[in-house]
C-alpha cells in the first residue's frame, strides 16, 4: 500500500486499482476506567491515567474505498452533530482531501452507535451525501439505527446484509461480534493487499494491541468481543492483513507484528 497524499485530517493510499482514504471525524474523550481486565477489574494504569477523572482520547476515523468506474463506498460516517464538538468534522476532512460528498453513493456502517451513523447529517442538520443510494448495515443493527429519530428519513435507504454478503467488487461483509448488535467489518481484497475495516474491535490501541484480552466497558458482550479481537489479531498478523479501525490513532491503518505475548501495531507509511 502506497501513500499518495497526506494532510492534517485525511490520508490517501493506493493499492492496485483502489484508493483508500482515511478521514478524521475528530476525537472522543472517554474515561480510562472503561478499559477492563478479563475479570472486570480496572487495569493497572500508568500514573498519568490513574485518577478517577482520567480520560483516554479515541480517534474517530471514517474510511472511503474508491475505485474508478465503481461506487464510492464510505465505511462509517462519524458523529455529525450528535455528540461533543470535538467530532462531526468529516465534511472538513473530505474538503481537505478534495472529495465531493455528493460523489458518495454507498455508506456502509460497522454498527449503529452514534459516532458511526449520525454523520449522514452535518452538525447543522444538512444531508451530507445528497446522492446516497443505500446505507449498508447488518440486519441486527437496523433497529438501533432507526431508534435515532433524526435518521428516520433514511429508512428507505437501509440495505441489510449478513456476513459473507458482497457490497461491491472485492468488498465483503464480515461479522465481528461482541461490541454491538450486528457489529460488522468489511474486507477489501485489492489483488495486492487485504484490508479489514474492523470498526470498534479495538478502542485503546496503546494498550489493547499488546494485551488483546483487555475489554472495553461499552462492549455489548465483553467475552465475545475479547474472543473476536484475539482471533482477528492472530489472523491479521499471520496473513499480513491491513487493519483499519474506527478508534485507532491517526491514520488508523496499519499492520500487526507479534511482540512478546501480544502485538505491535505498525502504521501505514
Care to describe what's here?
With 269 residues, the protein is α+β, with helices and mostly antiparallel strands. The model has no long low-confidence stretch (mean pLDDT 93). The protein has one domain (2-267): Metallo-beta-lactamase, Chain A, CATH 3.60.15. Strands 1-2-3-5-6-7-8-9 form an eight-stranded mixed β-sheet, with helices on one face. The chain starts with a strand and ends with a strand. 14% of the residues lie in helices and 35% in strands. Strand 6, helix 1 and strand 7 form a beta-alpha-beta unit.
What's this model, at a glance?
14% of the residues lie in helices and 35% in strands. The protein has 269 residues and is α+β, with helices and mostly antiparallel strands. The protein has one domain (2-267): 4-Layer Sandwich (Metallo-beta-lactamase, Chain A).
What layout of secondary structure does this protein have?
Elements: E1 2-6, E2 10-15, E3 18-31, E4 35-36, E5 55-67, E6 73-75, H1 90-97, E7 106-108, H2 114-117, E8 134-138, H3 142-146, E9 158-161, E10 166-168, E11 171-175, E12 184-189, E13 194-199, H4 205-208, E14 215-216, H5 222-239, E15 242-245, E16 253-259, E17 262-267
